[in-house]
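Researcher: Sit down with what I've pasted below and flag anything odd:
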Amino acid sequence: MITQQNFWQHNKAVLMFALVALTMPLWFPLIGGYSGLDTKIMIFCIFVVGFDILLGFTGYLSFGHAAFFGISAYTTGIMLKNFSDNIIPAIIVAVAAATLVALIIGLLTLKRTGIYFSILTLAFAEMFDSMAMSMLQKWTGGENGLTGMPTPMLFDLKMQGDTVFYFCALMAILLYYLAKRIERSPVGLMMKAIKCNQTRLEYTGINARKYKLLAFVLSAMYAAVAGSLMVVYEPFVGHEFLGWHQSGEIVIMSVIGGVGTLVGPMLGAGFMLYFENVLSVSLGEQWLLVLGVIFMVVVIFMPGGFMEAVARLKKRFFTTIDGE
């Protein structure tokens, strides 16, 4: 039987994230944030948590996760524009389409490891980007993007303003909770064993490939949900959703925050989007240079990202307290 204390211990991180997320419209403007940016941060929190299931748990680095984000976004836009303005069927169809593509790509790419896997995923993403710009431009709008969508609806509720934020925040909380459950499950332990020593795991008779494929598909599903919500947030889909820079940003967010911690990549996503949209105003054209310096400092001195910095401060603080 789960006691109240055990529930708190197992779900402390989720409850703290829920508190921060749901109160964001109250405190975010106090640090210069604006309405809409908080919604985008919630969406990218979903994206990076899913990415961490693949990179953080199994150690497989994908440079093509924008493919699932973009495919889902385009599918959502087409559904909203041509079939129904209700976001529920649009999200379901979009996630299903991206998951099917992820299953096929995973079966092909997971035969390779390391840089070969990374380059293969990048190649697939660039292929879909090229298709959106050429042979599928009748559906995607090509360089102009997919426009002309109606206001997304959640049944009879218009998805605008704070309504979109709280919907995205609730989705982020739910999916973060599911990721934490996966992390503590036997499946999650198998994924981490792959990262630790895949060869030794296979010598025990475990089929590591199915766990790698599961991590890849789950990660793609998270990216697909984020892609759908991006269209709900802003009814427009551009081909940059499929671009390599989108995948690169997710990698940077994860590394800066702390790979393998789930909460770390979310911190990285919040920092990156806040830096890009708020702090860059005062830094002017030099903001990319400053961001590059921050990234290098983190990689060189804190390989574990922001979460390593937090752990160091926590250790130092509590060691001082105990010493006193």
Q: What stands out?
A: The CA atoms of residues 153 and 159 lie 5 Å apart. The chain has 14 helices and two strands. Strands lie at 153-154, 157-158. Residues 320-324 have pLDDT under 50 and may be disordered.
